[in-house]
Specification:
Blueprint (H helix, E strand, L loop, with lengths): L16 H31 L18 H5 L7 E6 L10 E6 L7 E7 L12 H6 L4 E5 L8 H17 L7 E11 L1 H12 L5 E5 L15 E6 L11 H7 L6 E6 L12 H15 L19 E6 L6
Helix pairs in contact: 4-5
Length: 315
């Protein structure tokens, strides 16, 4: 009897249309799951560094220290562009100071107004000082040196509109992250601008002057800086009432300079620069690395007579 060896042959399986459908469905479910994982990973990348559940943080520059924000110059090289009064409407021209780097995206911006009878030269020191810390800064002239606070407020807003829409550096500016500053009547104008445009991220009146003493309408985080020796806009009738009238729910602060006068903001001043930088970084950039300089509240010192405010900040 002849024996034949049985060869094992793997059966051939022909997939049915139904089996194809099951495979496609399983593949689709796997693809969706992988896409979900990728989305989570991408979100984590987007939020890091410096973002929190509260919102995106536009961190610019290295981690700050007291020494770094007190320094005469920050980490960014700065260039400037002159803006003729003949090329603009609504304000008197000025000078734009901006970081020269193009590798960190856009920057927040701030417009700064001089005071009564003054020109931009009186607040020019703030331009490179703030720009070197990572802002586009526009020190402006007003249409008349005698312009009152309400007019100066409108001119600050016109300058910001020019900066973000027509200027030669508009591509460097994030139009959603803007602030205003000003000295004396320019400080009063700062309050007027913030009242008119609540979307502003920060306002800093410097020894501000305004006949209007009450500002319950403000929605912009505001740092009021006064001077203990100011006889032109005494803190008791200007800066203090400004601050006290603002909503208690608003992120606000009152800094009274020690041994200072109404004209102190016209000269380079480390205390003004330090707390202005911290305020602008915290609220224009939403950079909470700067919260440490504002909360806990700074204590009285040789430079600070008084500091009031709400902590922690919530904006």
């Amino acid at each position: 009897m002849q024996l034949f060896a049985r060869r094992s042959v793997a059966p051939t399986i022909t997939a049915t249309p139904q089996r194809h459908r099951h495979r496609r469905r399983r593949f689709g479910m796997l693809t969706a799951a992988l896409a979900g994982v990728a989305a989570v990973a991408g979100l984590a990348t987007l939020l890091s560094p410096g973002a929190s559940a509260a919102g995106y943080s536009y961190e610019r520059g290295p981690a700050p220290t007291h020494a770094s924000i007190e320094a005469a110059s920050g980490p960014y090289p700065v260039s400037r562009a002159f803006v003729s009064s003949f090329s603009v409407t609504g304000f008197g021209g000025g000078t734009i100071y901006y970081p020269t780097t193009t590798g960190e995206g856009t920057f927040g911006a701030v417009a700064i107004s001089p005071g009564y009878t003054a020109r931009q030269s009186s607040i020019a020191w703030l331009g490179p000082r703030l720009a070197s810390q990572g802002f586009v800064v526009f020190t402006i002239d007003t249409t008349s040196t005698y312009d009152q606070p309400a007019s100066r407020g409108r001119q600050l807003l016109a300058a910001l509109d020019y900066l973000t829409q027509r200027s030669s550096v508009r591509d460097r500016v994030d139009a959603t992250r803007l602030g205003v500053m000003g000295h004396s009547m320019g400080g009063g104008g700062t309050l007027e601008a913030a009242k008119s445009r609540p979307s502003l991220k920060a306002a800093i009146p410097l020894t501000g002057w305004n006949l209007d003493k009450t500002w319950p309408e403000l929605r912009t985080p505001t740092l009021v800086i006064g001077a203990d020796g100011d006889t032109i806009a005494p803190v008791s009738s200007h800066s203090e009432p400004f601050y006290q009238s603002m909503p208690s729910s608003l992120d606000r602060a009152y800094l009274e300079l020690n041994g200072a006068t109404h004209l102190t903001p016209n000269l380079s001043d480390t205390t003004i620069a330090k707390y202005s930088i911290a305020w602008l970084k915290r609220f224009i950039d939403d950079d909470t690395r700067y919260e440490q300089f504002l909360c806990p509240l700074p204590r009285p010192s040789l430079a600070i007579r008084e500091y009031r405010g709400n902590c922690p900040h919530t904006s």
